[in-house]
Amino acid sequence: NKVISQVTIQQLVGGMRGVTGVLSETSGVDPYEGVKFRGMPIKECLVRLPSVKKEPIPESMFYLLLTGEVPSLQQAEELRTELVSRSSVPFHTLGLLNSLPNDMHPSTQLSIGITSLQSESKFYRALNEGAKKPDYWEYALEDALNLVAKLPMLSGIIYRNKYYKGNLPQIDQNLDLSANFARLIGWEDINFWELLRLYFTIHSDHEGGNVSAHTTHLVGSALSDPYLSYASAVNGLAGPLHGLASQECFKLVLQASDYMGNDLSSHALERFIKKILETREVIPGFGHAVLRVTDPRFLCLVEFSDKNVQEDRLCRVAQMMSEVVPKVLQEQKKCKDPHPNVDSYTGALLAHYGLKELDYFTVLFAIARAIGCMSSYVWDKALMLPIERPDSLSIQEIENFVNKSNL
Hints:
By secondary structure, the chain is an all-alpha fold.
């Protein structure tokens, strides 16, 4: 009965900011240190998790989040092999994706594809056959492995269908999830594979209260299987205040670049930002619901860029914005903590390597976030957590409460 969090009326109507109300085993976010995966900061993860070249392979992060242990190279390789063996997509899902209109948003297509996989759910079947609650996690794990394994193929089909990029290659049995996904959408550049390894690692989880993680937990608490739970999460990811943010940020980078023309100076960029703020309250990519410092994930991308990208105009503009925008926002008192977050730089790096279809960015995010959401789903079932059911109040009830309190 120990109290760990109290709720004010301001928090109740303000998105529950600062309210501790979700159990999350896989990661947490420290306001001043950023995300920690199983207690490990990003920098430590990038050093300790097994890699093929330099950046960790996503399978090693998946192992860490599932087990709480840093895998050996052999353990990460065993998980990689296991996921490859589960990567095929059933015929009915392939036919369904091929039937969707090309103008449908890629995230919508991905949600439909994931939902169609529900017919393969071992968790759903086990429930119907009377499985015992202590055993739920085993069936959840099977579905979680299958879902993560199939996401690259699902996403590759969607990319090829929507952007007319030719035939889909076969999964390479010797490559990790990042490299196979890159090949499925047409990229053979090993530096791009490395970027995706970094991207999938740092985007894999971000505590349990964000929209996609919380949605997975909420829907899963009703004993909906992992496919239905994560399809719901993907719908949340499609919102501009969550997974769509990197797309919105990159649009602003493109606008800034066009505005500055040949004058790539901080003064020109400052004029652009002030002009933008005349018509909008926020600049996407700056500030964060939890963080009070520069997002360590942003710093990881900048470091990758500094080592691997030469003379790229849009990357330069994005880095300039990380210095100029906080200054302007602070001057105009538009944001309390206007530090750059990971979304402010993601699009520029992806575009550098040729991935310029902005509405597809959210699909990449969904592949990454499945690693954390599915790990958390398994742990929810292992801990036998109950259905989530908070109480609610109407505005009239709040007013009555306040009036009573003032007596």
